[in-house]
Design a protein that fits this description.
This protein has helices at residues 2-6, 22-34, 72-95, 106-129, 140-148, 172-183; strands at 45-51, 60-66, 152-156, 161-165. The longest helix is centred in the middle third of the chain and has 24 residues, at 72-95. A hairpin with a 4-residue loop joins strand 3 (152-156) and strand 4. The protein is an alpha+beta fold. A two-stranded antiparallel sheet has the order 1-2. Strands 3-4 form a two-stranded antiparallel ribbon. The protein is elongated, with a radius of gyration of 26 Å.
Length: 195
C-alpha cells in the first residue's frame, strides 16, 4: 500500500537535506501516527523492546520512537517510567475526575485540583499499603466501587454499633484483612520527655 502511495509523492529537497527516501518518510509518518505520535517530530531512531513471558509461545515486541541518545536499555527504562506516570495520570483523570475544574477563578481551581490530588494519593496509599496481595492489582476505580462507595446498614446496640455490608462487593474475610492492615497504621503514642 505504501509503495503505491509513494508513487504519487515527490520529494523536492536536495543535497544533505535528503537523508531518507520518500517511502521511508511516508511509512514513518503513517506508523508513527498509528503509534500515537501525531506530530511525528521526535522520530529520530527506533528502539525495539522484546519481552519473553513464561507460558507464552511468542515474544512481545514493542517499539519506542525517540530522539533520545544513549544506550537502548536506558531509553527503554526511561519510557517505561514515563508510561507508568502517564497511566497514573490517566487513572487520576478517570477515577477521581481531577480534570473537572469548573470554578471561575484560578485560585479556586488550584485548590480544587489539590483536593483531587490528595484524594488520589489517599486512594493510592490505601491500594499500595492496605490491600492484600490477592487484590493489589485493583484500579482506583475498583477500590472506590468495592470499598469506599459502598452502602451499609448501621445497627446500633447498647454497647456497640454494627455495619452490615453486602458481601457481593467484598467477601467478609477480605474486608476484615483490609481493616486489619489499616489498623496497623495506627499513630504510635507520643514520646514522653523525661527531664
Amino acid at each position: 500500500m505504501t509503495e503505491k502511495g509513494c508513487t504519487l509523492l515527490f520529494d523536492c529537497r536536495r543535497g544533505k537535506n535528503r537523508q531518507h527516501s520518500v517511502l521511508a518518510m511516508l511509512r514513518q509518518s503513517i506508523y508513527g501516527r498509528l503509534a500515537g505520535y501525531e506530530d511525528v517530530n521526535d522520530a529520530d531512531r527506533f528502539v525495539a523492546k522484546v519481552e519473553w513471558h513464561a507460558d507464552e509461545l511468542f515474544p512481545r515486541v514493542g517499539f519506542i520512537v525517540t530522539n533520545m541518545t544513549g544506550w537502548s536499555r536506558s531509553v527503554v527504562r526511561f519510557y517505561n517510567q514515563r508510561g507508568t506516570a502517564e497511566q497514573w495520570i490517566k487513572e487520576g483523570k478517570y477515577a477521581v475526575k481531577w480534570t473537572r475544574l469548573s470554578c471561575r477563578t484560578f485560585k479556586d481551581n488550584q485548590t480544587r485540583l489539590q483536593l483531587f490530588a490528595l484524594a488520589y494519593n489517599l486512594g493510592n496509599f490505601l491500594r499500595r499499603l492496605a490491600l492484600p496481595k490477592s487484590v493489589k492489582h485493583w484500579s482506583l476505580t475498583t477500590l472506590r466501587e468495592k470499598l469506599i462507595k459502598i452502602g451499609a446498614k448501621v445497627v446500633r446496640h447498647a454497647k456497640y454499633v454494627t455495619f452490615q455490608l453486602a458481601e457481593v462487593a467484598v467477601p467478609r474475610e477480605l474486608f476484615a484483612a483490609i481493616l486489619d492492615r489499616i489498623q496497623r497504621f495506627g499513630v504510635p503514642p507520643p514520646l514522653v520527655q523525661r527531664g
